[in-house]
Amino acid sequence: MVGGIKLWTSPGYCSLAVHICLREGEFSDVEIVLVSKNEDGCLMVGDEPLSKVNALAQVPAIQIDGGEIMIECPVINMYLQSLVPEKLYFPEGADRWRALAVQNFISSDLHQGIVFYFRPYVTPESKQKHLEYNVMKNFNHLNNLLQDGPFLFGSRPSIVDFYAYVVITWAFIKNIDISSLKNITAFGERIESRPAVRQALAEEGISPYFS
Predict the structure, then answer these.
(1) 127 contacts 117 by C-beta, under 8 angstroms
(2) pTM above the 0.85 mark?
């Protein structure tokens, strides 16, 4: 049995994917700690820097039963899935390797590609070139991955789908036009129609992006 779970998250960050998995997995005794930025751009938990929880000063961070702090969104989600595989889905067998590859693409290419836009030192000219040569290439690849089904691996959303959804929403935050990518648009609407996703969004004070 899983005891108390504590998640440090900040609205608009990839930690929302972990928050969604907690709600989809119907974990009980969950404490959500909302982390905010101070005027210097540092993530804070109240008056204390997040670095006291996670030395990297990043979200997500999660603690179960008051034990060791776990970090990194894909790792946390796979751990949660291992606890409640009947509620959180990740492909098995030969499909597992494809799912791991897609998860790695989202983490290393799609996620890191869009994070570039959040860097204050990047010039507008560099952002435009990055959009043309990196970001839209990755979004088009994801759009193609979604062409054969409602979700990435068939008819049931996986923990990878929830991660992909969160990264996609950053396009709205940074005014990147993805309206022509119909598979992604339909995918976002399907994800947001889920009660657990709506709950996680509401708990972080986020309005739905696709509806």
Answers:
(1) yes
(2) yes
Answer yes or no: CATH 2.40.30.170 is held by domain 94-193. no
Q: What are phi and psi for residue 176, nearest 5 degrees? A: -95, 120
Phi and psi at residue 200, to the nearest 5°: -65, -40
Provide the residue type at 201 as one letter.
L
CA distances from 15 to 26, 136, 184, 199 (A): 17, 23, 20, 14
- 27-73 pLDDT, tens digit each: 999 999 999 999 888 999 999 999 999 999 999 999 999 899 999 99
Residue where the block lists tokens 């009947």: 86
Cα 158 from Cα 74, distance rounded (Å): 12
CATH architecture of 5-84: 3-Layer(aba) Sandwich (3.40)
Residue whose token pair is 């008051």 = 66
Spatial CA neighbour of 102 closest among 161, 156, 155: 161
